[in-house]
Amino acid sequence: MDIKETIDLTHRKLLADQFHQLNLGISDYTFANVFLFRNVHRYEILKKECGVFISAHNRQGQNYIMPLADLRLCSLDMLKGLLNADNFFFPVPEEWLSYLPEKIFHVTYDDSESDYIYLTKNMASFAGKTYTRHRNHLNQFCSLYRPDGLPIGGANIGDAMVVLRQWQEDSVLNAGKTDFAVCAEALRYFQELALWGTIYYIENKPAGFIIGEPLNADMFCLHFAKASKQYHGIYEFMFNDTAKRLEPQYRYLNLEEDMGNGNLRRTKTSYGPEKILKKYRISLAR
Question: Which domains does the chain carry?
Answer without folding.
Answer: 4-111+280-284 (3.40.630.30), 115-256 (3.40.630.30)
